[in-house]
Amino acid sequence: MERLAGTGVALVTPFDEHLQIDEESLARLVNHVIDGGVDFLVALGTTAESTTLSEEEKARVVSIIVRENRKRLPVVVGVGGNNTAEIVRKLEHTAWLSECQAILSVVPFYNKPTQEGIYEHFRAIAAASPLPVCLYNIPGRTGVNMNASTVGRLLQDCPNIAGLKEASGNMSQATDVLKVKRPGFTVLSGDDAIILPLMAMGFDGVISVMANVLPRVCSGLVNLIVREEYADARRWHLALSDLCKALFQEGNPAGIKAALSAAGIIKHNTLRLPLTPVGEELYRRIEELLVDISRM
Fold it and tell me: In the chain, which stretches have pLDDT less than 70?
């Protein structure tokens, strides 16, 4: 498998005014981010509102992304949840997985498993997966943190676990993860706000929300860090900080859908309940920030 490093983009799922998948907007978005220089695509993640999609809709979203991608970039697809047996069943029986290059699987949410439970959960997924596995740690959403020691155990025992999206926001944990990772294992930031410090420490890139609307800028920042051009990277990091805060102020993907709508990349600023669009004041603020960044 091609190593997943650099800038990945966690694609939104655009909906029309009737809350059905807006296929035209999704196709436009895929080409927008590819033309903007991202390195890989992530489908059916948190930002895609995957928990509100039926299995048929998930298959359709992946089909559109694969069609528009035309094998230009690797496609990573979210396959996770809090029912281990059901995830294993999906991995063994989902035909469209063959069109993707890796899966992204989140730490089980709501159940609050122990570290042993997390280990056994991912060991079962790795054993069943026909594709390389990228772990996803996001304790703010799942209610439980996957410790670096658990990541280390999984890397020792599961050779097809190829990467980690780390979104704990904990710099000490990020350091511990880097200490236990094996050669060739990819560690990616799950937080746009701290791409610079994490990559300066040794992370390999990001799975970005902001790259939906600003793929060229986000890819440019990552490439500056890879080249160790830190003076320019600091300038870009600071210039993007206000937009990054605004995009998450009223939750994700509400903020990024507002930005995509304001930029004309998706047609409708619609989300499925229980998520709702951002308020008018924040929408205007996001519009203004996008104009400011366009002058960079």
Answer: 1-2
